[in-house]
Amino acid sequence: MTTKTDTLIPAADITDNQSVAVILEGKNILICRTNGEYYAVDNQCTHQRASLSEGRIRNCFLSCPLHGVRFDLRTGKPIGELTKVPLKTYGIIVSDDGNLHIELD
Amino acid sequence: MSDLIKVKQQGEARCEGISYQDLLDDEKIEVPSYLRENTNPYMGNEDIDVARWISRDFHEQEKIKLWPKVWQMTCREEDIPEVGDHHIYEVVDQSIIVTRTGENQIKAYINSCLHRGRLLRDCDGHVKEFVCPFHGSTWDINGQFKGIPCKWDFSHLDQKDMSLPQVKVGTWGGFIFINFDENSIPLEEYLSPLPEHFARFPLHDYYKGAHVQRVVQCNWKVGAEAFMESFHTLETHSEILTFTGDANSQYDTFGDHVSRSVTPMGIASPHLPNVTEAETMRDILELSGRMATDSAEGHEMPEGLTARTYVAETNREMFSEIIGESLDDATKSELEDAILYMLFPNTQVWTGYHGNIVYRFLPNGDDHNSCVFETMILMRYPKGTKRPDPAKKNILRPDQAFSEAPEIGGLGPVFDQDDSNMAAVQKGMLASKKGAVSLASYQESRIRHLHQTIDKYLKA
User: Fold this and answer.
1) How far apart, in whole angstroms, are the C-alpha atoms of residue B98 and residue B82?
2) Contact call for B126 and A58, based on CB within 8 A
3) A15 pLDDT band (50/70/90 cuts)?
4) What's the sign of the alpha-carbon dihedral B339, B344, B345, B346?
5) Considering the domain B72-183 in this protein, what is its CATH number?
6) Which residues pair with B31 in a beta bridge?
7) Could you read off the pLDDT of B334-370 as tens digits, one per residue?
8) Do A82 and B121 touch (CB under 8 A)?
9) Chain B residues near residue A63 by CB distance under 8 angstroms
């Protein structure tokens, strides 16, 4: 079942190539913005569970700060040999009032 | 005119009819000297042993004598725009981290941890420091050793040079080159006369608009050679003969490392005597994939104009608009002909004002019967605007057609036709009882030139 969260944060608070970590229903989720679009993924690298908060974002890709695994923010899929496990992704929308909402399973 | 044209030419025989130099005489704009060069020294006519393409032994010689000695193109500078960005360049069994260490500084490290030898990086990406994923040995971006966990267990490394070994790096035209050989000639000398010939095409300021890669089932040289002569147009690409002066092409060699073919476009092949100017114009726009437009709709041939002139002027107008610069000093030849240079051993670059094609052929790992073919299209963008981000590499599966890559447009179907030969040449050479190939004296002279330069490296 999909639930829509309450108002999170104003979309305008995140600039391009930045991220914000939030805890929602016990899940640590990283909200990222790149090329004007918003994405939400688990804030934990699938290689060694490192936090991705400090990871660099460029062109829909988030690099883990620990070993540089790159994840495609659109699909969660990793590039390279260090992990083949994708990051969990969440639906995210900008509501009419300009706030971000995340869809949790 | 250059002294180079005084050298003894490859045989005397040329296709009857108009030559490329004759076409230059018809230019209304001053012809730059690089187009007037016409140099094809005699290199012999002997058959060439197929072992050069199919034998494991030859591949092993290239591994020891060729790849460790030549300058090789790794990627574009725009592929690693920020400090810490890196590209992993692999050739046969070697792996190199090509990384940006400063706004105007690039270094290339041997991609192997000095602790247990693991690859430091598995793929392209971005890091703030290089941390080996195995035990955590760490180097900063400049290759200086920062440490290893449990340092108490490594006191024997204290006196050793633990900085990452580097290979030579050079740049030209926005490309990053490396050379494993500390004693190699400088890149500038190796490239000559390429920079001079590309003075009108500042490739460092172009951006990579498309990048497609696929494994092809042939030796890397079979792949490269598919693009080094226009003789195959007649049988392999017959649909483009209405606008391609295939047999009128000029072939040049410059020293050991550079060669060129110039195939006039916008004129019908000498093999097709009865093509009208209107047919030439229509087909080049529809089929070439390199003109400013890929549709002939709305284009009518004005009375008294040749297709060559009409298409060049169309390109001049549309390219100028795209790049926001006047192209008044561009010749018709530069606006439409296929002027293709090869930089030894495996990189080929077209001239042009918008949409310059680049090819690269590398052995597919340690397999001498297959190769990795990459093509890029370098594009210009309006002066004063931000350079667009480079295209992400589209890696096709071996069973996919090049025409499945929409970003290369009309080139896809042409590559598919070339592809239909490449694997078949490899297989046919393996089956050959003759055991050798015979090259055309002139039209395939660049292939002989490639092999003669390879021999210089193998025998050095």
Assistant:
1) 12
2) yes
3) very high
4) negative
5) 2.102.10.10
6) none
7) 999 999 999 999 999 999 888 899 999 999 999 999 9
8) no
9) 125-127
Domain ranges of chain B: 3-9+19-53+204-458, 72-183
**CA dist A30 to A21, A33, B87, Å?**
4, 10, 27
Q: Place domain B3-9+19-53+204-458 in its CATH homologous superfamily.
A: Naphthalene 1,2-dioxygenase Alpha Subunit; Chain A, domain 1 (3.90.380.10)
Interface size, chain A vs chain B, as Cβ–Cβ contacts under 8 Å: 32
Domains, chain A, ordered by start:
3-104 (2.102.10.10)
Q: Is the pLDDT of residue A2 over 80?
A: no
- Measured CA to CA in angstroms, residue B42 lies from B194, B304, B440, B442, B448 at distances of 21, 41, 12, 9, 10
A81 neighbourhood in chain B, CB within 8 Å: 122-123
Residue type, A52: L
C-beta of residue B336 within 8 angstroms of C-beta of residue B262: no
pLDDT of the residue at B145? 98
- Please give the Cα distance from B253 to B39 (Å, whole number): 6
> Are B123 and A63 within 8 A, CB to CB?
no
State whether the Cα torsion B312-B314-B317-B322 is positive or negative: negative
pTM, two decimals, is: 0.91
Chain A residue whose CA is closest to B127: A68
Please identify which residue in the block is written with the tokens 């179907």: B413
pLDDT value of residue B273: 87
Q: Which residues contact B270 (CB under 8 A, 6 or more apart)?
A: B15, B16, B17, B245, B246, B247, B248
pLDDT (mean) for A57-72:
94
Q: B15: exposed, middle or buried (C-beta count within 10 Å: 0-12, 13-18, 19+)? A: middle
Residues contacting B126, CB < 8 A, separation 6+: A56, A58, A63, A68, A70, B82, B84, B85, B86
> Which amino acid is present at B148?
I
Residue B221 DSSP label: H
